[in-house]
Amino acid sequence: MPRSISGFLIDIDGVLISGNQRIPGALECIQFLKEHEIPFLLVTNTTRQSRITIWHQLKRIWFPIEETDIYTAPLAAVNWLRNRKVKEISLLLSGSAVNDFKEFKITAYNPQYVIMGDIGRDLTFDRLNSTFRMIMNGAKILALQKNRYWQTDEGLTIDAGAAVAALEYATNKRATIIGKPARDFFLQAAKILEVPANELAMIGDDIESDVLGAQRVGMSGILVKTGKFREEFYKKSKIKPDVILSSIEELPKFITTK
Ligand SMILES: [Mg+2]
Questions:
Q1: CATH number of 85-177: 3.10.450.50, 3.40.50.1000, 3.30.70.270, 1.10.260.40?
Q2: CA triplet 52, 85, 159: central angle to 5 degrees?
Q3: What are residue 175's phi and psi, to 5 degrees?
Q4: How far is the CA of 146 from the centre of ligand 1 (A)?
Q5: CATH 3.40.50.1000, applies to 7-45+180-257
Q6: Cα torsion at 244, 246, 247, 252 (round to 10°)?
Q7: Digits of tens for pLDDT over the chain (258 positions)?
Q8: Separation of 81 CA from ligand 1 center, angstroms?
């Protein structure tokens, strides 16, 4: 184990799984961390699913984890809204992630915040435009994440960031970003694990959201060459990961040989 690292934050999509498939070595890596009692938290910017749905999905493909081993951008948003006593919101969200927001009044009439996530094919001009009108009427934008793209079974795919940027441009307002790379997201994850930020390493396939985001709060950033990783984008990037692994499969070896 590298002297300075005592726990890990692990991205899910592109690191542990790709589509519905386990990435080779991912299961063994989680088993290794559990056997050696190394603290870890799965942290994801996925905004289509609630935490419990993600947990069930990972259990189905045999990951030995608890629901509380997962921290998601929607959960972070719920905490953020709760702390600010926000009552009325509108959701530009789809899938089971909507269930995470049950405690709020969902309204299209003067909401305090519009909550934006990745809604894939459900993103239509009409939905974007009605959200645009709410913002022009005073609603603030809470973006669960602003990722540019992610890897699906069909290839690289536009993520929530494109729609967030479109609405920021049209309304001339700035979104508050909740998920990675927001500082608070990483710091909250460290708090959940009860490990100081500078003793944590974040493992991800997104050099901006995962690696740089983690480095900005004093964590180590480990980039894996799976998921959305593309050699040519990496070479052009000014971001320097602390460690590069060909995949999560190499993590146990990295831990034991350092
Ligand atoms: Mg990822």
A1: 3.40.50.1000
A2: 45
A3: -80, 150
A4: 13
A5: yes
A6: -70
A7: 566 899 999 999 999 999 889 999 999 999 999 999 999 999 999 999 999 999 999 999 999 999 999 999 999 999 999 999 999 999 999 999 999 999 999 999 999 999 999 999 999 999 999 999 999 999 999 999 999 998 888 999 999 999 999 999 999 999 999 999 999 999 999 999 999 999 999 999 999 999 999 999 999 999 999 999 999 999 999 999 999 999 999 999 999 876
A8: 25
Q: Which two tokens stand for residue 45?
A: 């910017």
Check residue 47 and report its DSSP letter: -
Instruction: Estimate to the nearest angstrom the gap between the alpha carbon of 213 and the chain centroid.
Output: 11
CA 77–ligand 1 middle distance (angstroms): 19
Residue with tokens 């831990």: 255
**Domain spans in the chain, listed from the N-terminal domain onward:** 7-45+180-257, 85-177
User: What token pair was written down for 116?
Assistant: 């934006």
C-alpha 36 – ligand 1 centre gap (Å): 25
Ligand 1 centroid to Cα of residue 95, in Å, is 19
- Report every protein residue that has its C-beta within 5 angstroms of ion ligand 1: 11, 13-14, 205
CA of 150 to the centre of ligand 1 (A): 7
